Amino acid sequence: MMTQLTRADFDHAMVPNYAPQAAIPVRGEGSRLWDQEGREYIDFAGGIAVTSLGHCHPALVKALKDQADKVWHLSNVYTNEPALALAKALTERTFADKVYFCSSGGEANEAALKLARRFAYNEHGEKKDKIISFRQSFHGRTFFTVSVGGQPKYSQGFGPIPGGILHAEFNNLDSVRELMGDDTCAIIVEPLQGEGGIIPGEQSFLEGLRALCDQHNALLIFDEVQSGAGRTGHLYAYEHFGVVPDILTTAKGIGGGFPLGVMLTTDRIAPAMAIGTHGSTYGGNPLACAVGLAALETIDTPEVLEGVAYRHQLLRNGLEGIGQRHGVFQEVRGMGLLIGAEMAPGYAGRAKDILNLAMEEGLMVLVAGPDVLRLAPSLVISEAEIQSGLDKLDRAVASFVAASASA
Fold first, then answer.
1. Which terminus in the chain has less CB density within 10 A, N or C?
2. Annotated binding site, which residues?
3. One domain for residues 16 and 78
4. What pLDDT was estimated at residue 2?
5. Which GO CC terms are listed, alphabetically (predicted)?
6. Which residues contribute to the annotated binding site for N(2)-acetyl-L-ornithine?
7. Looking at the domain assignment, is residue 201 inside a domain?
8. Is residue 379 within 8 Å of 52, Cβ to Cβ?
9. pTM (2 decimals)?
10. Degrees (nearest 5) of the Cα angle 334, 339, 340?
11. Closest Cα partner for 148 from 136, 159, 157, 121?
12. Residues 292, 389 within the same domain
């Protein structure tokens, strides 16, 4: 009989690029998890906006089990029915005509950036290669995507970064105009910045990016890895703003917890990614696509999408109440079920302290940088689970304030 694995085994066997909590979850159902000792947790973290329908949703479990008895993997020498079905469903529901599958958001953004440069190269020549991104943005962990992302801490220490990448200020259109030119091939933007602090894009800003791209024959890329798949109350956030990108990336919630990334684009642009220009061994994996289709069809319903706004308001009201009672938050912001509470100046840089105390109370939350507590629960989390989670968070914040006062 194998001895029980512990958190100490992580330190022994794993590369130390993560610092996980001591508790090890072993079972999940809906928005609840249980650890090795049987302790229950309310999940406001959602695997960082991944478990969009909670843990072990029946529709996703059925799709996975059904496909597991058929075919698991083929390689891209062949296609498969789940991939074709998911591609068809995505193009029917979005602006896109064409789909590229991979396994993560970073891979989807890598593909989007390569496609944008290849398209510009084919259409305009090698000098049109500049990519404009935004400070505090996050687009993945490949070397290209961390270089494009606007947080230097993720690329420092790995050698020279790729050239032709410029960074403007989010929600500041003038800062983009200063960098924009006929050598710009693309602008990549999160319509709702995630890791940068849960900051929604302003309507005029996103509209202005679309206009600048049109003016300079550049492509507009929306990174909806975190904001997509129903997270904002629309299937994709671009629908909320009425600003249509040329390329869109989606991952996280589209797989409901199964690794899946997708790049969406149009018939005009897709031919630049010709045979042999790019690939992904696991892209279009039948298991992933079967689960992804089940997630998409479950999320893209009035019941789920309209329910996001109601749940948003419950969480916002709860966070604002906690902030007022304890004086810890200076602003609550976000869209749908991606919500951030920014720490008050007296508690700046200490959001993770609340994360740790919340875990002790039986609640899983996230941070978005050192100053923002982040919530990204299931899109179908129950009202009772929301209230239970808020009560746990209230106790955690009370402990945080008391410890701060006695320090």
1. N
2. 138, 141, 223-226, 280-281
3. no
4. 65
5. cytoplasm
6. 141, 280
7. yes
8. yes
9. 0.96
10. 90
11. 136
12. no
